[in-house]
Amino acid sequence: MLPPVVTRHAANAMVSTIDHLATEAGVDVLRKGGSAVDAAIAANAVLSVTCPNMCGMGGDLWALVHHTDGPPEALDASGMAGSGADPDAARAEGLTAVPMKNDIRAVTVPGAVDGWLALHERHGRLDLDTVFASAIRSAEDGFPVHPTLSATLHLVAAVEHADLPAAAPAGAVVTRPGSARALRAIARDGRAGFFEGEFGEGLLAAGPDEFVPADLATVQARWVEPIKVDAFGHQIWSVPPTSQGYLTLLSAAIADGIEFDDDGLGAHVLVEAAIQAGHDRPTELFDGADPVRLLDAERIADRRAAIDLGRAGEVATPSFDGDTTYLCVIDGNGMGVSLINSNASGFGAHLVAGSSGIFLHDRGLGFSLQAGHPAEYRPGKRPPHTLAPALVTHPDGRLRTVLGTMGGDAQPQIVLQMLAASLRHGRSAGQAVGRGRWRIAPAVDTGFSTWSPGVSRKVELEDHVPQAIVDALAARGHEFGTAEHSQFGHAHLIEITEHGSLAGAADPRALAGAATGF
What we know:
By secondary structure, this protein is α+β, with helices and mostly antiparallel strands. The chain has 19 helices and 21 strands. The longest helix is centred in the first third of the chain and has 15 residues, at 36-50.
């Protein structure tokens, strides 16, 4: 069982992350007069040091920023495949998928640092030396290993240039001087300090046939149009493809047209809505996919009509545990940030950018090696992404909630459950985060294979899902099982209450998370 989740309250500002050190860094920046964006970057920079198994400067980033009563801004800082990407050569080797580990083809140009710089250029108030100060201190002076990092350190035992021990108990202090050097270089020289410095040299050396200097010279971050649906009496926002954020919105819109309570029927409706939204993702999610078509009202209505309230449905045949970090911030001026940064799977591709010690992500696993597929592995293309931050506004555009989670393919499903709990059923932040979760899981789980063609699926439940809901799902014919808490994401949520104060919660599944404000 999970420990009870406490809803934290604050009058002015709040930060919620998976690591109390990151949360403290964000709060410190806010107290110094920084914006929510400054705080989000500060927190993410700390996480890049303390949680390399989940995220880092060698990964990608997506964010939503709300600072007026109009639409939020959306940032896509996902990277593109290198100039050497060659699907024909991969197929000639007999590959049917891009290898996840120990293969540079799984690596796209990391976009996280470009994401930080784009966010800071538009909304930063403090200089980057100040924003990065806590992260640099943790990297140089040391930080205590948190339990989830301790449990996964064995994965890096054979990784060349890894700057972490192959084993360390929770609480042991480790340093990451290469990350400190990278952060100082970014603060001093911007993206050139990163991509033309120690990290960039290491990336080019790791992939001489995959990347050329021009690939690293191309800015990966871009401001894009956010996507939204009206559901549960609010406007729900996410980021467009190549993110799978449209699945959060599509499933919410499907469920919104059905009457249900916070009970067994409600769980069935949400499961079915998630399946109807996601079952054709492999053919629909790619670089250039049209979000307007994906969220078309007729498409929503057709999928809603396919749900049988009395039975588990079948879907026509047309992904692994994600290692990611989500964080959220609201500042004293009402600016909200919903940000997610990821290495894709644990320690990414198990490759390191030379002496920097920075792990390279394996987001290229989302590419297809099927000739002619819209998500085919090719130079300059972005792979499909599981990262899907979310944000909620009132019908008049005022910010209500920033929320999101890690969790690979299950991210939209987890966010859907929190949205329904908060917006439909009126649950508190702590209740929305702490309630027992379900996820749709493939028979053989990689974290990213849920919607793969021909894969059988089941509903997995946490051990504290109420028995009445378990019985209701069983009675409707759902195949289900149980899984460890670690399989159900690390979700965070901050909302602006009707009183104008803030209420937030950090996910206890992260073991070291904290929501703190002032």
